[in-house]
Amino acid sequence: MNILKSLADRDRVFDFLVPVASPVDVRHGPILYLEDVSVSFDGFKAINDLNLTIDDGELRCIIGPNGAGKTTMMDIITGKTRPDTGQVWFGSRHDLLTLNEPQIASLGIGRKFQKPTVFEALSVFENLELAMAADKRILPTLTARLTGEIRDRIEEVLATIGLTELRYGPAGILSHGQKQWLEIGMLLMQRPRLLLVDEPVAGMTEQEMERTAELLTGLAGKGKQSVVIVEHDMGFVRSIARTVTVLHQGSVLAEGSMDKVSSDPRVVEVYLGADPDVEAA
Length: 281
Ligand SMILES: Nc1ncnc2c1ncn2[C@@H]1O[C@H](COP(=O)(O)OP(=O)(O)OP(=O)(O)O)[C@@H](O)[C@H]1O
Ligand SMILES: [Mg+2]
What we know:
There is one protein chain. The chain is an alpha/beta fold. The protein has helices spanning 2-8, 10-17, 70-77, 101-108, 124-132, 144-161, 176-188, 206-219, 234-240, 258-262, 265-272, and strands at residues 32-41, 44-54, 59-63, 85-90, 94-95, 109-112, 194-198, 226-230, 243-248, 251-256. Helix content is 37%, strand content 21%. A 6-stranded mixed sheet has the order 6-7-8-3-9-10, with helices on both faces. A 4-stranded antiparallel sheet has the order 2-1-4-5, with helices on one face. Helix 8 (206-219) links the parallel strand 7 and strand 8 (226-230). The N and C termini lie far apart (60 Å). Mean pLDDT is 87; it is low at 1-18. The chain binds adenosine-5'-triphosphate and magnesium ion. Magnesium ion binds next to helix 3.
């Protein structure tokens, strides 16, 4: 009944289905601000007085050894984990610690987990279409005009992620890398302002990595997206990094250009030199 009522009122349907620009306020400061954040799991401090500032449009790489707290930091930003202490702000207006996961996502924070979760039996196009609808039951009842708007947005995202030619094929036939791009596209359908991407190039071919580097650097920009990337592949990080933050034992160990942090003896000791899996480019 409610659905029928809202369909009768076109404007309300549009409000509901087409995400409006994120309400984040970055006029006077950063897009993401973490201050003195700590969280313990059974007495173990996974995040320990963490301070982090991300500017609007920034592309930031986060590196650090296994267990440093990188994924936990993303869990805190997205509302999956509540810190014991500290502050987490999205722009100057939104205190993320007062909001739950869906509320945080709807403010314009999109998160990409490592494993792609696309619907393999659906086409690439349909996957993007589904990502657009806040309430997936409403999708079949869209009006013609609405479908046109969504179609335009889907085509725009398809071009961004480089899957235009494959749009009517099932997502199941995509390569691992293409599935990752599709999932980034699904996040883009919601017009996020901040994208959190955990280990995007794990399992990718060299070519796919290069394409992913272009995609992520292209997404970052003032008034578009800010992009925070956690990645262990140092060759990849070096190819995209502007500012790199090194996490260790739940806090920032070093921060700066790739050259600066990779020549920091403390970073070499805890990460670059110590982990045989890490290729210290
Ligand atoms: N929900 C949880 N309960 C208990 N311990 C947790 C939980 N989440 C994370 N941890 C612990 O917190 C620490 C930080 O883990 P986290 O996954 O954030 O590290 P990471 O930097 O992402 O590591 P990796 O590079 O291996 O992905 C680890 O010791 C982990 O075992
Ligand atoms: Mg992790």
